DNA sequence: CTCCTCCTCAACCCTTTGGTTGAGACGGAT
DNA sequence: ATCCGTCTCAACCAAAGGGTTGAGGAGGAG
């Protein structure tokens, strides 16, 4: 019995490519395509694919991570493999946490995609060695847990907002903003707003 | 006589998708595939395709813009269409300046790709309305021309460096850094280092 | 109830930044 | 020879940012 797979990617070209790729394989059958996370969730509800091959960026709607979480909550839950061009640490970690069975970059060979898919259908995990390394690194160096408010401040910080502007935006006083900033600096291990934005970008917090 | 096209994309999946797409079209014939800019330039030299369909990001080597410039310098010069996921203003402007006949986003329909390709083969330009708008906007609001030194300062600014750190890095005094910064702020039309980084990122200067 | 986290705010101090003016040196263009 | 753009630097001032201490209220967990 062939493995059934649902393709999720907002780029028609990529979907076409994947479909063409699996058409040459006897044991993989594409049972559906979705251009958004919402569509994917709805389709999976009916199609019950063995595996969902999902991009991380999905246009305007929900992203691949949220889609993965929703899919994994279904009964029966399909295996989800993330197939994307981006390889930032956070993305990978978030995807794994959400229940993804694998994380592939789009520059891998078609053969790898097919074999990964089979592995996932068997219930296995699919992580390229470099990916696996990042996962354990991510576990070892846990990303600081920022509170919701701190994240809001960080986001505004990224736009170049001054303390006064941040205060106005969040309906608090500058004193409060400064307090959040001090906590933020401490958690990110930096000593200036500029560096905070810089490291937040690097680590993917922003 | 069918239009000959060379596909350039570092993702095998995308190339497969495009190839599958054109296989259904009688008047378009894929004559080659390249996974890098260097490979594309070498192949075009021999194949003389009518059109080159090229991604902007091409892995580690030269990018799509440089590839476009090199291709347009060949005799006869193929038409070049940029097909990418990114739509930052600078990228588009740079691609057009380099001689691209079109700029498409990967989320367009397959039909659009085919028709755009034909248009380019006829010597025409292919710009989606929103793209065209950005181009004229880009012409109207010319990106500020920063000097080399100012760019270095801007780059360091992006890493969150303080004036002191920038000064050390560039082997000048803080006074000089401040002078550069004032010029930078004026050219970018901002009033703080944070905002400077923010708009530089938005406009693609950084 | 009490401990703890998070969010809020204030007063104080010192450092860094941003803005201004002015100026010397160098190289290329006219 | 002269102008112009670029890079360099200095001195000065006002504003913003960063660091500290302390503290009150709201809400959840034990």
Explain the overall architecture:
The structure is a homodimer of 206-residue chains. Chain A has 206 residues and is of the alpha/beta class. Chain A folds into 2 domains: 3-140, Response regulator (Rossmann fold, 3-Layer(aba) Sandwich), CATH 3.40.50; 148-203, Winged helix-like DNA-binding domain superfamily/Winged helix DNA-binding domain (Arc Repressor Mutant, subunit A, Orthogonal Bundle). Chain A has helices at residues 12-23, 37-47, 64-72, 89-97, 110-121, 129-140, 148-158, 163-170, 174-188, 193-203; strands at 3-8, 28-34, 51-54, 79-84, 102-105, 126-127. A 6-stranded parallel β-sheet of chain A has the order 2-1-3-4-5-6, sandwiched between helices. In chain A, β1 (3-8), α1 and β2 form a beta-alpha-beta unit. In chain A, α7 (148-158) packs across α9 (174-188) and α8 (163-170) crosses α9 (174-188). The N and C termini of chain A lie far apart (44 Å). The mean pLDDT of chain A is 90. Chain A binds chain B through residues 10-21, 57, 59, 83, 85, 106-110, 113, 157-162, 190, 192-199, and chain B through 10-21, 57, 59, 83, 85, 106-110, 113, 157-162, 190, 192-199. Chain A binds a DNA duplex (30 and 30 nucleotides) through residues 147-150, 162-164, 172-176, 178-183, 185, 191-193.
